Amino acid sequence: MKILSIDESGDHNLLLEKIDPTFPFFVLTGIMLDQKDFHRLQGELLTIKREIFGTEKIVLHALELTRTRNAK
């Protein structure tokens, strides 16, 4: 069996006058994996979350990983 995972990132507002000039992108992407590979990668990601954050119950957001909110 295959598992398809789809995610989006970026500015959901596609009206030209409302696009965020600091991040004027919208991306929709997906990856299809065999079920065994999906579960193996999921386990590895949970291990990384535990090692770095001390919990598996954290959501990784690209904005928080790549941009500092209070940068000067």
Q: What can be said about this structure in brief?
A:
The chain is of the alpha+beta class and 72 residues long. The protein has one domain. The protein contains 2 helices and 2 strands.
Note down, in words, how this protein is organized.
The chain has helices at 35-53, 62-66, and strands at residues 2-10, 26-34. With 72 residues, the protein is α+β, with helices and mostly antiparallel strands. The chain is built from 2 helices and 2 strands. The protein has a two-stranded antiparallel sheet. The protein has one domain (2-66). 33% of the residues lie in helices and 25% in strands.
Distance between the termini: 48 Å
Give a short account of the largest sheet: 2 strands, antiparallel
Query: Helix proportion of residues, in percent?
Result: 25-40%
As for the number of domains, it is 1
Shape: flat
Compute the average pLDDT.
84
Low-confidence stretches: none
How many β-strand runs? 2
| Radius of gyration based on Cα positions | 16 Å
Strand order of the largest sheet: 1-2
| Number of discrete helical segments | 2
Order of helices and strands: EEHH
From the helix content, strand content and strand pairing, which structural class follows? alpha+beta
The proportion of strand residues reads: 25-35%
